[in-house]
Amino acid sequence: MLDEWNGKRVLITGASRGIGAAVAKQLGALGAHIAVHYHSSEAPAEAVAKAIRDAGGDAFTVKADVSHTSETQKLVDDAAERLGGLDLLINNAGDMLGRVGLDEMDDDQYDRVMDLNVRSVIMASRAALPHFRHAGGGNIIHTTSIAARNGGGGGAGLYASAKGFVSTITRNMAKELAGDNIRVNAVAPGTIATDFHERHSSDAHLNAARASIPMGRLGTAEECVGAYVFLATDTLSGYVTGQIIEVNGGQLMP
Ligand code: NAP
């Protein structure tokens, strides 16, 4: 059933760490050729690509700040050129960029959060279209968040709203691109123990999150991987588009 992965050409943004790195390693192990995208974490990204190659797979790294359209366009085109085409784009790069309440939300914070979490997703997807059309179809998976549905925790209003945008445009893109044989879906992680929370969440915040999770613990990046593999595998999910899979230990049951 997973034979289809041999030689599949994949670009994963934000694959240097956390969820993106875990997905990259698994898809690499399945036989995909992986463009491991990073921005500031060069050494970790190289380690991800090396781990894939050491396991018998094929991977290389590509750098870009996906907040900027020109860099994102170049990232997708360069990755597709080196991969010899593109079959799957995973728009995973993102960040809260700090907890900011309404009193402190200024233009700069608004632009930074929206550019990283929203502009990147739209522009990378747009840049992928000609490559997918050339291949006769394609697959896009966005990383949204539980915050898109629950509004996010303290100071996460801009980030949560940006992810709400990602969830909504997932559904519209699915409708618009179905005729091009391109599926578009998203994964919505809950509270996952990655560097993201090292940066943004206090112990008190994480304890409160834990208490609200029926499974009683945070998730791991590896536990998010199955949802991406399912959505990325045509033989498993070929009739699934415009959907959002929640991976959250029961923290939210929409
Ligand atoms: P992470 O470990 O902090 O990884 C974030 C990734 O995004 C890194 O690879 C980082 O690349 C990349 N990135 C950040 N800013 C970038 C920029 N300006 N340009 C390009 N790449 C950039 O966090 P994670 O938890 O794995 O997060 C992955 C995705 O899941 C994000 O979209 C996040 O919003 C979402 N999410 C996370 C959680 C959670 O609980 N952890 C929950 C819901 C959704 P460099 O390190 O190379 O700069």
UniProtKB/TrEMBL annotation:
PROSITE patterns given in the database record: ADH_SHORT (PS00061)
Source organism, top-level taxon: Bacteria
Domain Ketoreductase: 8-190
Region forming the signal peptide: none
Classification via Pfam families: adh_short_C2 (PF13561)
Family, per entry: Belongs to the short-chain dehydrogenases/reductases (SDR) family.
Protein name per the record: 3-oxoacyl-[acyl-carrier-protein] reductase FabG
